[in-house]
Design brief:
With about 270 residues, the protein is mostly helical. It has ten helices and four strands. A hairpin with a 3-residue loop joins strand 1 and strand 2. The chain is globular, with a radius of gyration of 19 Å.
């Protein structure tokens, strides 16, 4: 547990640095998301054993970098189209060497991981002047749900949530994760409102709704990627973050929550100007 807590503080330090830099250089968010995308796709390809199949892994890694960096320029559809054409061309010309299973797994999951995580970049468009708060919420909400579920599960967990997928997760932990997530998300918004941004008011009811349902989505995201790991007999997607696994192990819940935040914020505004 000490290793897990130490790594968590290291991650917080990195995210904190990105948050501070993004206040002065908004493109920092794009660069950060692109880095997380390419590392996540790299770890996924390694887990499903397609990393050395360069005909499909190289275009996928390239797409995971280019898409987040250029999504803000309104050419995301074109980038997806080019990537699709390249990948389908590969399966046509290399069908004897590459199985359709490997192609479909790599292609579909690269799209899912990259497009979902790029929602963090699109959150800037909601309000460019306050994009830092959305950056923090998009990652802190699912992570806090996971942290809350972990600690509550360790001390109070008795009933297994999905024993065949993730034996350590409990119903008590999931409930605790949702409660911690809601409280922490509202606290984050309060701190931004009072200490960083002084030109807006937070709609705490909307924050409650978003964080409440977002916590459940983050749990589903975590479990869905655990299914993939179990299918390939992989414990973690990587070892970049000691005690937590790889980047994809940390961002699997973000992949589900970030698009949700991006979509719902248009109907349930977090900020009242």
């Amino acid at each position: 547990m000490k290793e897990r807590i130490f790594s968590a503080f290291m991650v917080i330090g990195v995210i904190g640095s990105v948050v501070i830099l993004s206040m002065f250089f908004p493109i920092t968010i794009d660069i950060f998301v692109a880095l997380m995308c390419v590392l996540s796709v790299f770890e996924f390809c390694k887990a499903v054993k397609t990393l050395k199949t360069y005909q499909i892994s190289f275009p996928s890694l390239a797409f995971s970098v280019v898409y987040p960096m250029l999504a803000s320029f309104g050419i995301s559809v074109m980038i997806c189209y080019v990537y699709t054409v390249i990948m389908l061309s590969v399966i046509v010309f290399c069908h004897e060497k590459i199985s359709f299973k490997d192609f479909s797994y790599t292609f579909s999951m690269t799209l899912i991981i990259t497009i979902a995580m790029t929602s963090i970049v699109s959150l800037k468009q909601i309000d460019p002047n306050h994009s830092t708060m959305f950056l923090v919420l998009s990652m802190a909400t699912p992570w806090l749900a996971d942290a809350g579920a972990y600690f509550v599960g360790v001390f109070l967990g008795k009933h297994k949530l999905c024993p065949k997928i993730s034996p350590k997760k409990t119903i008590e932990g999931a409930v605790g994760g949702v409660i911690v997530c809601v409280i922490a998300s509202m606290l984050i918004c309060f701190l931004f409102e009072k200490l960083i941004y002084h030109d807006l008011t937070i709609n705490y009811f909307n924050v409650f709704i978003i964080s409440f349902f977002g916590a459940f989505l983050s749990i589903i995201g975590d479990l869905s990627f655990s299914v993939i790991k179990r299918s390939y007999s992989v414990k973690d997607y990587g070892d970049l973050i000691p005690g937590h696994g790889g980047i994809l192990d940390r961002f699997d819940s973000v992949i589900f929550f970030a698009p949700f935040l991006s979509i719902v914020s248009n109907y349930l505004p977090v900020m009242i100007k």
